[in-house]
Design a protein that fits this description.
It contains 14 helices and 7 strands. A hairpin with a 2-residue loop joins strand 5 (261-268) and strand 6. The protein is elongated and about 70 Å long. The longest helix has 26 residues, at 54-79. Strands 2-1-6-5-4-3-7 form a 7-stranded mixed beta sheet, sandwiched between helices. The chain has 2 domains: 3-163, no CATH class; 170-296, Nuclear Transport Factor 2, Chain: A (Roll), CATH 3.10.450.50. The chain has helices spanning 3-26, 29-44, 54-79, 83-93, 98-108, 110-116, 121-132, 137-144, 148-163, 170-189, 192-198, 223-231, 234-237, 281-286; strands spanning 199-207, 219-221, 240-245, 248-253, 261-268, 271-278, 289-290. It is α+β, with helices and mostly antiparallel strands. Helix 1 (3-26) crosses helix 3. Keywords: DNA-directed RNA polymerase, Transcription. This is DNA-directed RNA polymerase sigma-70 factor.
Length: 297
């Protein structure tokens, strides 16, 4: 077997691994597939006969490819100054089957994808490669063009941002998460009675204009009115997951991991007392988002 044929065979065996790495780096199945194809183009253009660990070598290449793609994506976003223009780009990117969308998000963790998307390109590469796939820092250093010590600092800084810090005791965090998950489960199921059971009688829902349909009120009061409105948003509820919002349990709504809305949730006892829906891009950027650690759940 020729070296090229052997490389092709090993590439095919590594394809699922490379796609998994790329998806966590990029948060997009389409872009991950593009990255894997680019890895093959780069790998097949050089002599790899002396490479001892082909999968590790290919993982390094996919890291470089994804870093280039993340940097290019950031430049494009900075150039999109009009919100409506950005919305059109996101709409085109999200045009896939809804069931596939949910499966992709759940395979990694939709909340994690949202938080990773807030990291700088080099931070994201360092965190994903080291914390999720165990790549050594000396190899990550070559990808991000830093020293191993600097690569370690990138991953540490990213880790701190991903996991954040809760502002309430662990027991309260668990209780809050349970209430929020009950609310989301009822919303997804379209269960009015379950929603009424988890909403405080005097609950208030506030929202900025960017988060609302044209005719919706910026404020709604009372459990029944809030529950009935929630039932009209079951599509959004499919892509909603609990996260830490400024240290307390809240919700992100993020089709394919692309942040659309944040719900800041106030909880009294075992019921939702208030919901503040944030859709304005400036306000969204100001929120501190983090995943809820498994140890706290």
């Amino acid at each position: 077997m020729s070296h090229q044929a052997e490389l092709a065979e090993q590439f095919d065996r590594s394809r699922s691994h490379l796609r998994a790495v790329a998806f966590r780096m990029l948060g997009s199945a389409d872009e991950a597939e593009d990255a894997v194809q680019e890895v093959w183009l780069r790998a097949s253009s050089v002599d790899a006969s002396a490479v001892a660990n082909v999968t590790g070598w290919l993982t390094t290449i996919v890291g470089r490819v994804c870093l280039d793609m993340l940097r290019s994506r950031r430049r494009r976003r900075e150039e999109l100054t009009e919100v409506t223009e950005l919305d059109r780009v996101v709409a085109r990117d999200d045009a896939i089957d809804p069931e596939e969308e949910v499966a992709l998000a759940d395979s990694v963790g939709l909340a994690l994808l949202v938080v990773l998307d807030r990291l700088g390109p080099a931070e994201r590469i360092a965190f994903v490669l080291h914390d999720l796939f165990g790549v050594p820092f000396d190899e990550i250093a070559e990808i991000v063009e830093r020293s191993p010590a600097a690569a370690k600092k990138l991953a540490s800084r990213a880790r701190h941002r991903v996991h954040g810090a809760a502002t309430v005791p662990a027991a309260d965090l668990i209780r809050q998460r349970g209430v929020v998950e009950a609310f989301l489960a009822a919303a997804r199921a379209g269960d009015l009675d379950a929603l009424l059971a988890v909403l405080a009688p005097d609950v208030v829902r506030r929202a900025d204009r960017a988060a609302l349909r044209a005719s919706a009120a910026t404020e709604v009061r009372g459990a029944r009115r809030v529950a009935e409105e929630t039932l009209t948003n079951s599509g959004r509820a499919r892509f909603a997951r609990p996260v830490l919002v400024n240290g307390a349990v809240g919700v992100v709504v993020a089709p394919r991991g692309r942040l659309q809305l944040v719900l800041e949730v106030a909880i009294a006892g075992d019921r939702v007392a208030a919901i503040d829906v944030v859709g304005d891009p400036t306000r969204l950027r100001q929120l501190q988002l983090a995943v809820i650690d498994v140890a706290s759940s």
